[in-house]
Amino acid sequence: MASSPAPCAPTPSISKAEARAQGQAFADVYDKVAPSVVVLEVTTQADALADNPMLEFLFGPRRQHIEPPLFEESEGSGFIIREDGYILTNAHVIENASKIMARLRDGSRLPLTVVAVDKKTDIALLKAEAQGLPTISWGDSKAIRVGELVAAIGAPYQLDFTLTTGVISAKGRSNLTDTVYEDYLQTDAAISPGNSGGPLCDLEGNVIGINTLISGLNHSIGFAIPSRIAKQVSDALLKTGRVIRPWLGIRIETLDETPELQQMMNFEHGVLVRAIEPDTPAARSDLRPADIIVAVDEKPVTTAREVQQTILGKSIGQKLTLKVWRRGAREGAFLAIPIITAELPDDPTIARNGASLPTPTKPPEDAELSQKNLGLQFQNIPPEVARQLGVDEIGVIVTNVAPGSAAAVAGIKRRDVITAIGQDIVRDTKSFQEALEKLGTGEAMTIQVEREGKKTYAILKR
Fold it and tell me: Virtual CA dihedral for 392, 393, 395, 400, nearest 10 degrees?
C-alpha cells in the first residue's frame, strides 16, 4: 500500500505588527535613498541612430515622406555617489546621448556630462556642476544573502521615484549578455524600463547594486551589478577615467557545462582553454588550446568564472602559475605553466586578412592519403602565405576540407595551420603523417590549429 505524501509545511504568516514594521523599514529606506536618486532625461540625435535597423521598422523606408524625428527621448535612473555631482548609471542608458539632464526628487534639474564609460561592466560615470548634493552609502553585496529583503528605486515606465521591493533571489548570475564581466545579483523586485541605472538597496538603505534591465528576459526577474564591482569601477573611473584590467589572452569554457567535451577529453572537472589570442601573455607561454586549467597559483578552479575572477585580482605584470591537465601527456601528470599578466587592451579582438592560398592542380600523395583518412588536404606553408597569415612556416596548411568528413565535423577549415597532433609537433607534411601513423583507427586526437593568428584546437577520430 502506497504511503500518502507528507503534508506540506504551512506557509508562515506574519502579524500586523510585523507587517507594519516591514513596511516602516521600506519607508525608511526610501526616505534615506530617494534624495540621492536621479531620473535621467536622455536625448539622442536621430543621426546617431541612422544605422539602426529599427528605424525602418518604426518609420518605414527613408524614401517615403515619413521621416524619423530629429531627436529621441528616453528615461533611465542613476544615483549620486559624491556631493560634488558625480553620478553612476548604466552605460546603455546614456549610449549615443547628445544631451543628459538629471531630475532630482525636489524637482530641480541639472545638466550632466559624461566623464567615463566602462562598457565591459555597463557602468557610466556622469558629472553635474553642483555642490552639497545628497549621496548614497555603499553596502556589501558580498555579504548579502539569498532571501534577504531589498528595495529598488527608479523611474519605471516614466513613473519617477518608484519604490519596488522583493528579495535577493540568487547571486553570481552570468552568461546573460555578451559581456564576460558578469556577476549579477538576481531579485524579484520589479526592474522595468526606466529602472536601469538606479540603486538596489538593503534594509539599511545601503546600495548593494546597480539595477540593470536585461533585454529579452522575463521582466518579473530583475538583475543588478553588485556593489563590489560597481564601487571598484567607479573608483577607477574617478581616478583615471578608465578601468585597467589584467588578462592572459585566453578564451575559456567550464568543462562541466559541456558533457560531450568531458567525454571527449576524458576529464571531469576544470576549465577548458578554447582558444589563445595572438600576441598575448598566453601566446608567449607554453599554454595550449585544449589544456584544462584546474588551479591558478595553487587555488583550485572548476568554472570559467572562477578563473576570470582570480586573474582579475592580479596586478599588471604579475607572474602567475596555471596548473593544467593536457591530453596525451603522461597519465596522472599535471603541468605547471607560468604566465605574466598584461593589460587588457580596449579592443582585444584581433583580425587578420586572409591570404590567398595556392590550389595544387594535382594533390600530392600525402594530401590524397589524408583526404582518405580525415577528409582534408594539406601542404607545407609557402613563405609568402606565412607572411600574409602572420604565422611561422612551421606546420602544415589546410588547402581543402571535404564536406561531411571527420575533419569538417570537427570544425577544421581551409587556411587553418596545423601545428601539433597530441604531443607531437607538426613541422611539415612528413611529421604530420608520422604523427598520424602513431594513432590507432577510431582513436580520438587533439589537433592544435592556428586560425587567423589565433591558437585553437579540434578533436576528431581517425
Answer: 110
